[in-house]
Design goal:
The protein has 322 residues and is an alpha/beta fold. The chain contains 13 helices and nine strands. Helix 5 packs antiparallel against helix 10. The longest helix has 23 residues. The chain is globular. This is BadF/BadG/BcrA/BcrD type ATPase.
Length: 322
């Protein structure tokens, strides 16, 4: 995904405030979609930004497959319309999507080719929609910590920069999958007798559904990033275990390394986002904690702003054509 596109989108303005004006179905609807490796979150509003419903669905990160991504997005959107007691029709919808994996040009092209017949569609990385939502379009840094991880910043000119996010298993430092991949090593050692059995190993064993070495090997052969991420809560739950404590300390240092190149002056506010944001707060280096702020909004709200801009551009083009 060319980040020049991100910069142009950011420069278009800060997040528009949701209002309370009424609309008819003929005006269309806006859908802000945040899609990652663990799930999909959707905000549905009318054409003027009045929130109608929120919903969630299965994973829609592109690394898990384009067909699965659109299926999860469609199911989540339908749930939102059901919650609002409205009929669901793609052609009435302007979509803004912040998705994991759009930096892979082939995945993005396949996703676009499979798109339903929507009114308007804008797609950016989930990192961009996260920083857009977290700081309301103003300068700042975010570190998104979920199944995967990535850091992003917006500067005063609206330029978006990215750090990390190279994907599982080589990248995504401090992510749930990163934690799980390292935590399962403790279980392997215990099953071999290289380390004594303890509460942490029993919890990890239960989360994998394995009962012995052979069944764990089967789990490992089938495990993807989502599966490894299911082990992350066990690391936080057993934070007093020496190995888990070292792993969490290492993760905190990795978060600092993700932020450093995005804000060399150490002046921008930082927001941790995603499902692991709160559990990680105590492990972030002290110098970063001093600048940490609660996110103003989430990635789905940032994606909703993309939908608003896409719908506005469509309306403007239609007006010029008259």
């Amino acid at each position: 995904m060319p980040f020049g596109q991100l910069a142009r989108a950011a420069a278009a303005g800060k997040l528009a405030a949701m209002n309370t004006s009424s609309t008819s179905a003929s005006d269309g609807f806006l859908l802000g979609i945040d899609g990652g490796g663990s799930g999909t979150r959707v905000i549905l509003t009318d054409a003027h930004g009045l929130e109608l419903a929120r919903a969630s669905g299965g994973p829609s990160g592109l690394g898990l497959g384009v067909k699965r991504a659109w299926q999860s997005i469609g199911e989540a959107c339908r749930r939102a319309f059901d919650a609002a007691a409205l009929p669901f029709e793609w052609r009435a919808c302007s979509l803004g999507c912040g998705l994991a994996g759009v930096n892979n040009a082939d995945w993005l092209a396949a996703f676009l080719a499979a798109a339903p017949d929507v009114r308007a569609l804008s797609i950016e990385s989930d990192a961009y929609t996260t920083v857009l939502g977290a700081h309301g379009g103003e300068p700042g840094v975010v570190v998104a910590l979920g199944t995967g991880s990535i850091a992003a910043s917006l500067d005063e000119k609206g330029v978006c920069r990215i750090s990390g996010g190279y994907g599982f298993p080589s990248g995504d430092e401090a992510s749930g999958a990163w934690l799980g991949l390292r935590a399962v090593v403790h279980l392997q050692r215990v099953l071999d007798g290289r380390a004594p059995e303890d509460g942490w190993s029993r919890e990890l064993l239960a989360r994998t559904g394995a009962t012995d070495r052979d069944s764990l090997v089967v789990w490992l052969c089938n495990a993807n990033q989502t599966a490894y991420a299911t082990l992350a809560p066990a690391v936080f739950a057993f934070r007093d275990h020496p190995d888990a404590a070292r792993l969490l300390e290492q993760a905190g240092q990795e978060i600092g390394k993700l932020v450093a190149p995005l804000d060399p002056a150490g002046a921008l506010p930082i927001a941790l986002c995603g499902g692991l944001a709160v559990p990680y707060e105590p492990f972030v280096p002290a110098a970063l904690r001093e600048r940490m702020r609660a996110p103003r909004a989430d990635s789905a709200a940032g994606a909703l702003e993309l939908a608003r801009r896409a719908a506005s551009a469509l309306s403007g083009a239609a007006g010029r054509a008259r």
